[in-house]
Amino acid sequence: MPTFPNIRPRRLRLNERVRRLVRENHVTVDDLIYPVFVTYGQGVRREVSSMPGIYNLSIDMLLEEIKKVEELGIPGVIVFGVPEEKDEVGSGAYHPEGIVQQAVRAIKKEYPQLLVITDVCLCEYTSHGHCGLIKNQTVDNDATLELLAATALSHAQAGADMVAPSDMMDGRVAAIRAKLDEAGFTDIPIMAYSAKYASSYYGPFREAAGSTPQFGDRKTYQMDYANGDEAIRETALDIKEGADIVMVKPALAYMDVIRRIKEQFGYPVAAYNVSGEYAMVKAAAKLGWINEKQLVLETMTGFKRAGADIIITYHALEVARWLREV
């Protein structure tokens, strides 16, 4: 094989146009999903203190935010609810007039072509902050499944285009698929949080969604961050149970997992660029320590290079604008 001086890799780095010509991975607006937090009230636009630029929005203000999503060509949003009241069984999650159900109907009425994905979990709605029913101070996996399935069905009935169970209960994809199919929603895809780790990167989200556990932690149902093989087993189970898209969460510290899952299964893979990742970038940018645009676009490209087909990110609006400038 020829070597230097006949082979000079720098020839293909000569200028920006050559670099664009041979670039292997590209981030486009079509890769993006924007997470939104919806709450009750009118005229509510309450900034999350640890996530500059991200807000708890009442439905009227959410529709204004969705207008930006549409204008920028972002394919869709994933909706998280912030209820007024909570109880032991998270009844607000599956109530037909819950905040997510109302928001979905409003979005689909105003923007019928927008892809609306709903997060399916109980943690925002339970008084104890855990993702399922509590029995003997632990989450009762099997008793929780019916409530998760009821939540997913209520979202589909409200008009959701896709449901995304994030609870990490064993068997929840199968329970949701069966419930949706039984009710005639066979065309509603499931995007499963398949490899969701018990991570310190979620802190700001818990402020935004009011979902901090009131006792203990989530390590009995979310994955140990030291494990990679377990992610393969979890993903295989979700696919077998009927998942249409699989997700890795968080994304930044788990690019190896994204790559392994993509290579192993060849399924559509979503990477969730989570709240802690977003908050660190915003904090460093505020202090002038980084070039925010360059760093974020580099990170997004890293997710694509790792194998992600979909990027769920709080930077979505900014990324979409920056891509128009390229």
Task: Give a quick summary of the entry.
This protein has 326 residues and is of the alpha/beta class.
Task: Give a structural overview.
With 326 residues, this protein is α/β, with parallel strands linked by helices. The chain has a single domain (26-325), classed as Aldolase class I (TIM Barrel, Alpha-Beta Barrel), CATH 3.20.20.70. The protein has 11 helices and 12 strands. The strands form 2 sheets. Strands 1, 2, 3, 4, 5, 8, 9, 10, 11 and 12 form a 10-stranded mixed β-sheet that branches. A two-stranded antiparallel sheet has the order 6-7. The chain starts with 15 loop residues before the first helix and ends with a helix.
Descriptive key words:
10-stranded mixed sheet, two-stranded antiparallel ribbon, globular, alpha/beta, metal-binding, magnesium, 40% helix, 326 residues, TIM Barrel, single chain, zinc, heme biosynthesis, porphyrin biosynthesis, 11 helices
Structural topology:
Layout: H1 16-22, E1 32-39, E2 45-47, E3 55-58, H2 59-72, E4 76-82, H3 99-110, E5 115-120, E6 134-135, E7 138-139, H4 141-158, E8 162-165, H5 172-182, E9 191-196, H6 203-209, H7 229-241, E10 245-249, H8 255-265, E11 269-273, H9 275-286, H10 292-306, E12 310-313, H11 316-325
Parallel strand pairs: 1-3, 1-4, 1-12, 4-5, 5-8, 9-10, 10-11, 11-12
Antiparallel strand pairs: 2-3, 6-7
Helix pairs in contact: 2-3, 3-4, 4-5, 7-8, 8-10
CATH class: Alpha Beta
Overall structural class, as computed from helix and strand content, comes to: alpha/beta
Mean pLDDT equals: 94
Unreliable stretches covering 5 or more consecutive residues: none
CA-CA gap between termini: 36 Å
The string of secondary-structure elements, in order, is: HEEEHEHEEEHEHEHHEHEHHEH
Would you give the CATH topology?
TIM Barrel
- Give the name of the CATH superfamily: Aldolase class I
CATH architecture: Alpha-Beta Barrel
What count of structural domains?
A: 1
Portion in helices: 25-40%
The major pleated sheet works out as: 10 strands, mixed
Number of strands: 12
Q: Beta-strand level of the residues, as a percent range? A: 15-25%
* Helix count, DSSP H or I runs of 4 or more residues: 11
Rg (C-alpha, Å): 20 Å
